[in-house]
Amino acid sequence: MISQAMEDYLKAIYKLQQTMKPVPTSALAEHMNFSPASITNMCKKLAELNLLHYEPYQGVVFTEAGLQVALEIIRHHRLIELYLAKALNVPWDQVHAEAEKMEHVISEDLEDRMAEALGDPQFDPHGAPIPSRSGKIFRVESETLTDMDAGNTFVVVEVNDEDSELLRYLGTIGLYPGTELLLVECAPFDGPLTLQIGEEQHNLGYQAAKSVLVAPKDTSQEQL
Amino acid sequence: MISQAMEDYLKAIYKLQQTMKPVPTSALAEHMNFSPASITNMCKKLAELNLLHYEPYQGVVFTEAGLQVALEIIRHHRLIELYLAKALNVPWDQVHAEAEKMEHVISEDLEDRMAEALGDPQFDPHGAPIPSRSGKIFRVESETLTDMDAGNTFVVVEVNDEDSELLRYLGTIGLYPGTELLLVECAPFDGPLTLQIGEEQHNLGYQAAKSVLVAPKDTSQEQL
DNA sequence: CCAAATTTTTAAATTCTCCCAAATATCGTT
DNA sequence: AACGATATTTGGGAGAATTTAAAAATTTGG
After folding, report:
1. Second label for A187, Cα 20 to 30 Å away, from A121, A199, B119, B137?
2. Could you tell me the pTM of the whole model?
3. Cα distance from A156 to chain B (closest Cα, Å)?
4. Is the shortest CB-to-strand distance from A46 to strand D under 7 Å?
5. pLDDT at position A70, please?
6. For residue A152, what are the domain limits?
7. In what side-by-side order are the strands of the sheet with B143-144?
8. Domain tally for chain A?
9. In chain A, which residues have pLDDT < 70?
10. Among the three residues A62, A83, A107, which one is the final residue of a domain in this structure?
11. A with B: how many residue pairs have Cβ under 8 Å apart?
């Protein structure tokens, strides 16, 4: 009943509705790299299935049912990412692509077994929270590194999992969720940020820094 | 280029061409539960891609390229089955359904990691041989239990992985690949077979017994 | 508050995989 | 060697997911 394409739409809508409600079809079109027409078509279908509220020209909002479906897929995705990283040592810059395909095909039973093998984990390898089986998700307080002031110490909460190359680079400088860093300097006009990680200093481009979410050191949540 | 549907066709053709060459489209239609017309269509496409030799009314035969693609998918399938059974304790009657979906989406890299985690295994949980990375597969000498004579002892080599209910039953009587059994009696007219497994005796229906492949005890190959 | 620019939807077309019904080829008998 | 039964292909069509191009609605700016 719910096709793989539909699942991808719901996942994309979930991502966008964190910053905009309702989600305009144009935002979806850009995010998914589909034509606006495709988006309208599919949103109508999803509204038919009572997964979305859809008002022409107004964009879409989740129904409760739609939100639960989206969270279930996201749970699949993040559990798979963590499982691959932990159990099979898949590099953290590759788990996203792999999970992107597997999330649509694993059974609930297999998901449960992976969750159990991992000890019901709370976060994926990029620091994103894993929804619970019952569809609850906890948002960790955090802001993007580019919004922080120089001179303070932070803990990395989460990094964007979609850019494999970026992840590989962040790995080489040791910037993982849980890592502590000192923001030494922020160059003006969206320039690079100077970070102190352990004993070493690194310059991180503005675009890269935008996809790093941090929390002030003192109020930091502990995670594995 | 090669769609999931095409992969399913190649897998089915591999299965059938073990007993018939060339494979008639009707056999494929029956095995895959598609109409004969669908089969003809797809076989033409696969022939276009140089994966099959297709002669109208004569059926299909693999090209070398087609055979390699088929073996790669089968390797995916069987490695996944074994991995799920061993690493995540998925019951052996469920691994087939799970692998059927996952086989189409895992990367070669992930496959390698699973193979490595399992120590480059030779057989899946049902005793079927796993093709090597380079596409070689070893056929273990075996015959179906219904063709054997009463009074002899055999080792189970392989059981059909497609019937979940049957596998569950075989599990309850302890009939796994590697299990030793004494064929006590074969009722005539395709009647049930009486087996001695360990201390217990069981009656196995003729249809069920047909999907159990065995080898004489003395010449049996060792497998984990 | 109207016209231009933008966004969104509608409509028609495409590709893929499948189906059904009809036409055609093959095969076993006699 | 021709007939009937069976197997196979052809042709046409349907549904899903996408596209492009054109039409319609909304927003924006003077």
Report:
1. A199
2. 0.91
3. 28
4. no
5. 94
6. 143-216
7. B143-144, B212-216, B153-159, B180-186, B193-197, B200-204
8. 2
9. 218-224
10. A62
11. 44
